[in-house]
Here is the input.
Amino acid sequence: MRNLYVVLAVIGFIVPNIFVFNESVETGNILLWLDPAATLHGMFGNQISTAFVADLLCVVTVALIWIVVESQRLNMKNSWLYIVLTLLFGLAGPLPLFLYQREKVLGK
Here is the structure.
């Protein structure tokens, strides 16, 4: 599973951020952080995108809580790193990266 998690982490960092990169180049809204109003307008621009964003925000919240709790339970160091990476790049890369590290800890 560890190899799969590494592959999924790489894919998870690259694929979504292709779109973020394109948006950053086209609008100057770097990592979608420099123009929060435009980012929010795009995220909540219609009911379909709002439904996806609301679902994603719920999933990200649950995942971050689980990452922190699971890190403490397993005495994993640097759980803050996954939170920072998630806030910067989204959950698709940091979650499988955390799962990889978790498998390493459990395998000891």
